[in-house]
Design brief:
The complex is a heterodimer. In chain A, 0% of the residues lie in helices and 53% in strands. In chain A, a hairpin with a 4-residue loop joins β8 and β9. Chain B is mainly β. In chain B, strands 2, 4, 5, 6, 9, 10 and 11 form a seven-stranded mixed sheet that branches. Chain B has a four-stranded antiparallel sheet with strand order 1-3-8-7, with no helix packed on it. The relative contact order of chain B is 0.33. The chains are: A mainly beta, B mainly beta. The interface between A and B is medium-sized, with 24 and 27 residues.
Chain lengths: 116, 111
Amino acid sequence: AQKVTQAQTEISVVEKEDVTLDCVYETRDTTYYLFWYKQPPSGELVFLIRRNSFDEQNEISGRYSWNFQKSTSSFNFTITASQVVDSAVYFCALSEAASNTGKLIFGQGTTLQVKP
Amino acid sequence: SQTIHQWPATLVQPVGSPLSLECTVEGTSNPNLYWYRQAAGRGLQLLFYSVGIGQISSEVPQNLSASRPQDRQFILSSKKLLLSDSGFYLCAWGLVNNEQFFGPGTRLTVL
């Protein structure tokens, strides 16, 4: 069965520290997609990244980077030099191609607090 | 560009009252549409999705129903609200195997 686990419920760091948010997924599908979303206090989910199961290249976008490892079924998210504006709930999600519906299976989320 | 609207933004309803939340999408045709619920301090649970007009799939048995009367309109309803229906309701649109884009959400409190 498909499942996404974000074991870290809450993380607190001081500004400028690096922080890694963990995401572990389970799926039997060979073609799938992984996502990260940010949910600021306003509540709206903001899309950050999409990665398909055939592309294990790590990605960097400014202070954000993602490490996708199929061998460990993980898709971790690192924020370098964190800022107060990074404070939010972050969700990892999985979509299986076989479902043909685009349904997202979300992890429980990690609340990140960046203190000044 | 695509835009997704949800209303109302907040809603306080008594137990047993009806519910109607509306979601509309602009700037795209024949999108897949989704309703999610987020209980306080928890993750998102998919409630319904629709791949076309009049086509609704329910993910979990519950007190709610959904309808898609037009291509870019998705409605979440209930005939009688329960306390457990309280939460943050998010509508999203997307294309299969691509990211979903979320609306601003509706905070529902059932008293």
